[in-house]
Amino acid sequence: MQTLRTPDERFTDLPEFAYPPRYCEVDDTEDGRLRVAWVEDGPAQADPVLMLHGEPSWSFLYRRMIPILVAAGHRVVCPDLAGFGRSDKPTRIEDHSYARHVEWMRAVAFDELDLRRVTLVGQDWGGLIGLRLAAEHPDRFGHIVVANSGLPTGDIPMPDIWWRFREAIQGMDTIDVGRFVQSGCVRPMDDAVRGGYDAPFPDDSYCAGPRAMPGLVPTAPDDPASEANRAAWNTLRDSETPMLVAFSDSDPITGAMGPILREQMRGAQGVDHPTIRGAGHFLQEDAGEELAEAIVRFLAAG
C-alpha cells in the first residue's frame, strides 16, 4: 500500500492544540505497515475517554473538549483515522474500506494502547467506527457517547443533503477541507482554525481518505458493511452499557438518528440526554465545551 505522510511543519502553531503527537504502526492488511497518530492527556491510570473524529476532520476537532475532560480527572485519547491528521495517508481511494478502518482503530486502541473500561465518544465516522468496536469488543467499554452519528445499514435512505455532500466531495478537483468543516458548523470559524483543518492535506494527493469515506457509508441493504453493522446494532440495542445520545439542534445529516438511538438502545434508557444548542454537524467545533461538560456529567452519574 502506498502512503503519504504530511510534513511535521504543517502542524506548527495550531490554535489551542499544543499536544505532542504519539505514533504507532499497525498492519495495513497488505503486508505493510501504517503509521497512526494520536494525542492524549490526563492521568495515565484513569479510565480512558476514546474520542474518534469523522470526515474530513482530525483530532484537532476535540481541542476544546480535552481540557475539560482532563480537569474532571479523565485520561483522553484522540487518534487520527488513517488518511487524516498526522496519520499516514493511503493514496488510493480503493485502499480505504469500512472494515479496514475498524481494524486499524481496533489495533491502535487495543493492541497498542490496551485500553480498558473505555468511554467511547464518536461523531460522524468516529461513531460508525467506534460503535462497531463497542459492539464487537463489549468487554473493553464502560460507557458510550454518540454525538451526531449512527450505525447505518443501508436499510433506511440517507437524506438528500448527505447525497449532495457525497457528490461534492467526490467530484471536486481540489478539496477545501476547511471550507467543508465550516459548512458543517453554525458558528463562524476564523482563518487560523480553518488552517488547522487544512493542515493535514498539503495538496489533493493527500486527500484519498476524505474522498473515499462518503462512498464507504452503507447506502443499500447489500453493502459489504451492512451485515456487520446490523449485527452491531442488534448487540448495542440489547446492551446494558450506558449510552449518552448528545446530538446538536442543527444537523440535517444525522439529526434523525438521535431519537431512534434514545428510544431503541437499552443503555440509553433513564439517561438525561442533552441537546447541544446552536451547533451544527461538527458540534465539537461549534460547542465543544458544552458537549464536554455533558460527558463529564454523564460519567459522574456512574
Describe the 3D structure.
This protein has 302 residues and is an alpha/beta fold. It has 10 helices and 11 strands. The chain has helices at 66-71, 98-112, 125-136, 160-171, 177-183, 191-198, 208-216, 226-238, 257-264, 283-300, and strands spanning 3-4, 22-27, 33-41, 48-52, 75-79, 89-90, 118-123, 141-147, 243-245, 247-248, 275-276. The strands form 3 sheets. Strands 2-3-5-4-7-8-9 form a 7-stranded mixed β-sheet, sandwiched between helices. Strand 4 (48-52), helix 1 (66-71) and strand 5 (75-79) form a beta-alpha-beta unit. Helix 4 packs antiparallel against helix 7 (208-216). The longest helix is centred in the C-terminal third of the chain and has 18 residues, at 283-300. The mean pLDDT is 96.
In short:
This protein is an alpha/beta fold. It has ten helices and eleven strands. A seven-stranded mixed beta sheet has the order 2-3-5-4-7-8-9, sandwiched between helices. A two-stranded antiparallel ribbon has the order 1-6.
Question: Topology, please?
Answer:
Layout: E1 3-4, E2 22-27, E3 33-41, E4 48-52, H1 66-71, E5 75-79, E6 89-90, H2 98-112, E7 118-123, H3 125-136, E8 141-147, H4 160-171, H5 177-183, H6 191-198, H7 208-216, H8 226-238, E9 243-245, E10 247-248, H9 257-264, E11 275-276, H10 283-300
Parallel strand pairs: 4-5, 4-7, 7-8, 8-9, 10-11
Antiparallel strand pairs: 1-6, 2-3, 3-5
